[in-house]
Structure formats: C-alpha cells, structure tokens
Design a protein that fits this description.
heterodimer, A: mainly alpha, 2 domains, two-stranded antiparallel sheet, B: three-stranded antiparallel β-sheet, elongated
Chain lengths: ~250, ~110
C-alpha cells in the first residue's frame, strides 16, 4: 500500500506530453539576430571551415585499400543528400542502430581498410559535417523501420529518466520548460537538427554526443563514453521527436 | 591546415563602398590557459591581418589574445579599379596564410 503510493508519487510527473508539431522550434528560433546571421551566411559561418575540410577528406584516398569516399559514393551532393535526415539507421551486422559517425568509421575500417577516426576528432567531425550538410534544409524524416522501435523506446526512457544529483530528466527542461530561462540562456527544445555544429561557447565544432555529455554534466549525472549505445538510443528518440524540422548543419549555437 | 572564407563582391561600380568579409580557421590560443599538468600552453594567435588592393594596403588589424578562435573580420573599402585583393594573416609562429580574391569594377 505504502509502496504503491510511493510509486504513484514518484511516477506521476515523470511523463510529460511531447511538444505538438506546430509548436516545434529549432534551437535557431531562440537565437539572437546576430547569431542567426552568422549561421545563415555561409561565408561567416565558422562551421563551413570544417565542412570544407570534410570535402577535402571525402576526395582523399586513404587506408590500405587506397580508396576515397568519393571513389564509391561519387558526388556527395547527390549520394549523401537526405542521409543525415534519416540517421541513425539500423545496421544488420551489428544488430543495432548506428549514427553517422559510426557509419563513417565502419566505411573506413571495412572499405578503406583505414584506422577508425577517434570520437570528436577534427577529421571525423569534418566528414560528418560534410555529409550532413548535403541534407541542409531537408526535413528530419526518421525511417519507419520496426527494428529501430525497441532502441527508440530505450532512448525515450533515458530522456524521461530522472538522473544526477539534481534529479532531473531531459524532459523536465526541454518539454516542460522550453522558452524559459536557465540563468542567462533560453532553454531550447533540444532538437538535434544542426549537428555537428559550431558552438560559440566551445569555439569549435562538436557532435551531438558532446552536447549531451554537457547536459548530463550540468545535471551532475554520470555521462556515457563517446559512442555508447545509450547516446545512439537517445539520438534516435530525439530525431523522431524532431521529425519535420529542417537540417541546419553546420548550425551555429551560442 | 588553415582554411579561409572570403566574401568579396565579384563586381562593383567605380566609387562604390564595398563590404569585405573574411573568416579564417585558427586556434587563437591565448597563452593564459594551463594544460593538463598545469603548464601554460604557449600563446599562438594571429597577430596581424593585412588586406591590400592592387598592392596598396587598404586595411590592417592587430589582433590580441582576447579574440575568439576563427577570427571573423569585416571591413569596407572603395572600389577604385578592377584587380586583386590580397589577404594576409600572420600568426605568432611567423606562419603566413595568404588568400586572393578578384574584383571587376565597371
């Protein structure tokens, strides 16, 4: 009796309704006009420097196979168009979803016979930024692959899980309190539609996982290792939550 | 590998004021940050930027450690004649990054 009452009390506020489609806003909509201008104009967007690096890497032969990405995939503006809008995708060989970075590294090890690029390394960010940029402006469209369902649900569980010393869930800020202030910053809706992005606070490009790690540290929770399955599940859920928003890579965020 | 993005109008009318935007990738290490063992990371910033228009200097800037990574500079000049704009960034290591852009003045 007491236990069940306790369970009700603990569970009651945990699950908030998802943001309705009409109210979905990209992090872009919360930015100052100056930061928006920086992102919009491609000659002032510092993320473009990384995209250009990515383009060079795309065309460079590497690994024991001495093959470039372009040797198989040819023109990225064609072959990679829309890819970022539907990742993470299910990888049959691993039996679980992989994100863009993991797919790039799988291509490197299997097709190019090169060493995988370390997480958050300049080259990996450059390649994934270059690939993701090809989907700029396209709406996020997660695939209806039934194999992804359990992983997406696992991601949602992490999203709703109260964790850390502050005992917060992602949803408490990003579903229930978006648009309000957390110290000086406006709380956005946590849509992953511009990654990898240039964050002014970092003065560098970073991946979604770096951002998630940031949030977890802010909640004083234990963060996962880069590439951990929890991050992929969470990304999967966040992408389905952001369905319809345009890809902005390389985005600029404060 | 330093990369620069330059935005110069391709054409302009004689006497027109044109806006030039430049962005270059650089760490801009301030010299005040300690590394993992507490030793200061040596300063490495772009300290000078010069733009010349057909060999004549039209803009110069001295940069200091408080300037963020990947400095973005915008300035204006008057379009006098068709030719080449030369951009030159110099950092603390003495490395020089150079770029060019063409402009047609009618």
């Amino acid at each position: 009796m007491l236990l069940s009452l306790l369970a009700v009390l603990l569970l009651a506020p945990a699950h908030a309704a998802e943001i309705p489609q009409a109210e979905k806003k990209s992090g872009y909509d919360f930015m100052t006009p100056e930061t928006k201008a920086m992102q919009d104009e491609l000659t002032s967007n510092p993320g473009m420097l990384t995209v250009l690096d990515g383009e060079a890497l795309w065309n460079r032969k590497t690994g024991a196979a001495n093959r470039a990405c372009a040797d198989c995939h040819q023109d990225a503006s064609n072959s990679m168009k829309g890819v970022a809008a539907r990742y993470p995708a299910f990888d049959a060989a691993r039996g679980r979803p992989v994100n863009l970075d993991q797919r790039i590294n799988a291509c490197r090890t299997e097709r190019q016979q090169a060493t995988p690029l370390p997480p958050e390394s300049k080259d990996l960010l450059a390649l994934s930024a270059y690939v993701a940029t090809q989907s700029r402006g396209m709406p996020i469209a997660p695939p209806d692959d039934p194999r992804l369902k359990p992983f997406r649900e696992a991601g949602e569980k992490i999203y709703e899980l109260r964790q850390g010393q502050l005992n917060l869930s992602c949803g408490q800020c990003h579903d229930q309190n978006w648009g309000k202030k957390l110290a000086g910053a406006t709380i956005p809706q946590a849509h992953p539609n511009g990654y990898p992005l240039y964050r002014l606070e970092w003065q560098a490009m970073g991946s979604l996982q770096r951002r998630l790690r940031n949030c977890l540290i802010g909640m004083r929770a234990e963060h996962y290792e880069f590439g951990a399955p929890e991050y992929i599940d969470l990304e999967l859920y966040l992408m389905s939550r952001a369905r319809g928003l345009p890809i902005e890579t390389p985005a600029v965020r404060p | 590998m330093a990369r620069a993005l330059i935005n110069v109008p391709k054409t302009a009318k004689r006497g027109q004021v044109i806006e030039i935007k430049t962005l270059i990738s650089h760490e801009m290490e301030t010299g005040f940050r300690p590394d993992r063992v507490g030793k200061l990371i040596p300063r490495d910033i772009i300290n000078t930027f010069v733009c010349s228009y057909n060999g004549i200097e039209v803009f110069r800037a001295d940069l200091h450690p408080a300037i963020a990574a990947n400095p973005f500079l915008t300035f204006t000049t008057v379009a006098t004649e068709s030719g080449v704009l030369d951009f030159k960034w110099t950092d603390d290591d003495g490395k020089i990054f150079a770029e060019k852009a063409n402009i047609v003045v009618e």
